[in-house]
């Protein structure tokens, strides 16, 4: 019989296996050594894939990306103390986005708690409402642990806090047997969709993670589809490319009803539309920690039930949107083509066009996903492109790590790309530290470098009257040499300054993780945005 901590660690790893967790990210430490050895033994036997990272925050977001694209829970394991706190951003994002994540933290045994023992703090409930905690002692019931881990199937993160006492090293090598049997799935209730009649001038808004049902509804009803890039709905003939601009014009003012799927967070015009008193809002409840909408809802239905339409609407409404979209899109492309320098919108468009059928694109927050929203290439239904983003809280944290995790979690992708800004990239530089022998995807990371935070230039604080303080408070030019940072991690790097150079770089990936740095201007961003909005 092995020592108590080894036995406890093995039972916890067995619980992960029984809950169908096959991707585990490990951050090294001393107190979590029993878990580390147990994970290595199972990985060697082929029972899971193990990813080791030096930084817990990086590890948490790597696990998030793995879970997002593999469509099954991933786990992240770390030692005690401040290491646990570094997982909070990823746990919060997973909670708000409804992503299953199992957080396993090592802790001191009960006798050392509330003392000055090294790396000891109060870890029970440290993630607050974002992840329930099970405090696991050596005498814990294994079935209770397994049931708790399986609760991730409710599309949320869960936290196992494991009390490990010395000795922390195993006495033998583990030969893992079959994992515990999974629980019998609950009976699926029959769907009770909400049926809408045609008539009011209706649009379908598809936010993050809306999925194909939003597109299907738009097609069945012949309604315009206003779909964000990471909605999973932006394919087919009903998607309106320039909807964000058109909402500010006459067409937007004529909308009478909106059906909302997913989690829309990109566009102020969409927010304004949903807040209007003269618009009926029908909501399909999204996944995540807070499913209540930040706007008034007239009718609501569960995601499992969905919305159907009793018949197709008059196609004239859709055709008005299509005609306006074609015209606005042509004028937008002409405006961008007339610019003497590479624009961030052109970078987003080139990246979108480079995603082949079966491909993957992970998009960072801030300006890039909004630029992409205006520039998404027309995608056909059934081509199985996947565009994902961390939109639960829409932070820039851990984007490089999430993109690498997303690529590793979807190994069948024909190609994987990521698009992000320079500040987002710098925020997660440790994501490029993969370690010798670690699983390494083929991923092209496109960094739009305008030397600082350009998104603020388009907001109120970017107005001319604040120019004397803007750079110090918001623009934060950094002057970082991205090529040197990439060289430090032995990551291939290419710098481009024109659309032609960018398209050539995207057409010739080198394999592995590589960075394409697209240099754009920041000093004209506010003016460019104003001219784009003036198209309607």
How would you characterize the overall build of this protein?
The structure is a single chain. With 536 residues, the chain is an alpha/beta fold. It folds into 3 domains: 4-163, 3-Layer(aba) Sandwich (Rossmann fold), CATH 3.40.50; 194-322, Rossmann fold (3-Layer(aba) Sandwich), CATH 3.40.50; 339-533, Thiamin diphosphate (ThDP)-binding fold, Pyr/PP domains (Rossmann fold, 3-Layer(aba) Sandwich), CATH 3.40.50.970. The chain contains 19 helices and 19 strands. The protein has helices at residues 4-18, 33-44, 56-70, 82-85, 88-97, 142-150, 212-221, 243-246, 250-253, 268-274, 315-337, 344-354, 367-375, 399-409, 422-427, 467-475, 482-488, 499-507, 525-533, and strands at 23-26, 49-52, 74-78, 101-107, 133-136, 157-163, 194-196, 202-206, 225-227, 257-261, 280-284, 299-301, 307-309, 360-363, 386-389, 416-421, 443-449, 493-496, 513-519. A 6-stranded parallel sheet has the order 2-1-3-4-6-5, sandwiched between helices. The protein has a 6-stranded parallel sheet with strand order 15-14-16-17-19-18, with helices on both faces. Strands 9-8-10-11-12 form a 5-stranded parallel sheet, covered by helices on one side. Helix 7 links the parallel strand 8 and strand 9 (225-227). Helix 3 runs parallel beside helix 14. The longest helix is centred in the middle third of the chain and has 23 residues, at 315-337.
């Amino acid at each position: 019989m092995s020592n108590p901590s080894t036995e406890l660690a093995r039972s916890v790893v067995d619980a992960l296996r029984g809950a169908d967790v096959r991707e585990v990210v490990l951050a090294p430490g001393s107190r979590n050594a029993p878990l580390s050895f147990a994970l290595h033994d199972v990985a060697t036997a082929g029972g899971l894939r193990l990813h080791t990272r030096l930084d817990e925050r990086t590890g948490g977001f790597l696990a998030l990306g793995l879970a997002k694209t593999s469509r099954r829970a991933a786990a992240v394991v770390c030692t005690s103390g401040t290491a646990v706190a570094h997982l909070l951003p990823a746990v919060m994002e997973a909670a708000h986005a409804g992503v299953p994540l199992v957080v396993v933290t090592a802790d001191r045994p009960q006798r050392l708690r509330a003392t000055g023992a090294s790396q000891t703090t109060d870890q029970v409930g440290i993630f607050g409402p974002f992840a329930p905690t099970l405090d696991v002692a050596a005498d814990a019931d294994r079935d209770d642990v397994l049931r708790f881990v399986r609760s991730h199937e409710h599309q949320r993160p869960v936290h196992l806090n494991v009390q490990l006492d010395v000795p922390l090293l195993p006495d033998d090598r583990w030969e893992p047997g079959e994992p515990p049997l999974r629980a019998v799935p609950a009976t699926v209730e029959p769907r009770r969709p909400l049926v809408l009649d045609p008539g009011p001038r209706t649009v379908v808004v598809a936010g993050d993670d809306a999925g194909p049902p939003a597109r299907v509804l738009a097609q069945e009803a012949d309604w315009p589809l206003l779909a964000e890039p990471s909605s999973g709905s932006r394919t087919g003939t009903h998607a309106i490319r320039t909807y964000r601009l058109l909402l500010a014009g006459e067409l937007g003012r004529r909308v009478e009803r909106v059906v909302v799927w997913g989690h829309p967070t990109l566009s102020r015009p969409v927010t304004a539309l949903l807040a209007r008193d003269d618009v009926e809002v029908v909501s399909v409840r999204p996944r995540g920690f807070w499913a209540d909408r930040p706007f008034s809802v007239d009718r609501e239905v569960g995601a499992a039930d969905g919305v159907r339409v009793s018949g197709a609407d008059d196609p004239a409404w859709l055709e008005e949107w299509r005609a306006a979209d074609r015209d606005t899109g042509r004028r937008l492309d002409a405006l961008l083509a007339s610019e003497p320098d590479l624009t961030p919108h052109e970078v987003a468009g080139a990246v979108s066009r480079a995603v082949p059928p079966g491909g993957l694109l992970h998009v960072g927050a801030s300006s890039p996903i909004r630029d992409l929203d205006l520039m998404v290439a027309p995608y056909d239904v059934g081509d199985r492109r996947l565009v994902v983003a961390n939109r639960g809280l829409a932070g820039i944290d851990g984007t490089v790590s999430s993109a690498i995790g997303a690529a590793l979690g979807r190994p069948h992708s024909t190609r994987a790309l990521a698009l992000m800004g320079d500040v987002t990239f710098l925020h997660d530089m440790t994501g490029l530290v993969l370690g010798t022998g670690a699983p390494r995807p083929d991923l092209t990371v496109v960094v739009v470098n305008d030397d600082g935070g350009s998104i603020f230039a388009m907001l109120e604080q970017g107005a001319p009257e604040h120019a004397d303080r803007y750079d110090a408070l918001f623009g934060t030019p950094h002057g970082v040499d991205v090529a040197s940072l990439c060289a430090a991690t032995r990551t291939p790097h290419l710098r481009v300054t024109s659309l032609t150079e960018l398209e050539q770089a995207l057409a010739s990936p080198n394999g592995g993780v590589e960075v394409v740095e697209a240099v754009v201007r920041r000093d004209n961003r506010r003016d460019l945005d104003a001219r784009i909005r003036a198209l309607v």
